[in-house]
Amino acid sequence: MNALTDRSMIEICPLAALSVERGAAALLPDDTQIGVFLLDDGSVHAIQQHDPYSGANILSRGLVGTHVVPGGTPEESVVVPTIASPMYKQVWNLDTGEVIDAGGGEKKQIDVFDAEVRDGVLFVASSPRPRADAR
Asked: What is the pLDDT of residues 34-53, one digit of tens each?
């Protein structure tokens, strides 16, 4: 059983409604605000909409990018997709929610929701993945 089948998936929108590398806000049935993203490589991502630094629900308006996470050797380094807050420019890993650049402040992780495309429609998990700092 994969992680996507462990939680109920909520239909969000047709994939064609999303612009590549631009976020869109969505509302889950429990009134949780999320940001959803379609990246240039075709992958889809969903994160909490709430920016833990500014307190505003703005992360779907963030700047999509990438960051090289260094490994023990250059060959072990990986490039991860990122989102930067449009307010104070903190940067998070879109795959894990871990903060990459806290702007000199406390590191505040964000929630990440499983996302998948089925028959051209984006679905997002009804609840976030467990956080790395909560394991």
From this structure: 999 999 999 999 999 999 99
